Amino acid sequence: MACLDGEVLVVDDEQGILESFDAMLGDDYRLVTLDNGRDAIDYLEAHEPRLVFLDIKMPGIDGIEVLRQLRERRGDTAVVIVTATTQPQYEIMAEDLGISAYLRKPFDVEEVESITRRVLH
User: Fold this and answer.
1) pLDDT, the chain, mean
2) What CATH number should be reported for the domain holding residue 24?
């Protein structure tokens, strides 16, 4: 059942993660994938996805900075952190910036699909 009500943005520097999201969500949602924080910030200046899946640890501009800049522009975009880092300070910083969820890699496919349905329906 396709539901194209809203765009999903996935930002991660790992190509395999982007491909996983495409396999999970690409048939049912308008999905945009980017592999770095700079492109994400540029994209978010011109587009308003309803849901963003965002990696924290990326070369150059990290996910926390992308999240900060997104919150300065729009505070209502649902953001889910998807990360392999186990450092608790990142989770605290992300929660302080108002995330919807914090998922650790490897993530659970059903959880990703559930979050997406909840936000976009």
Assistant:
1) 93
2) 3.40.50.2300
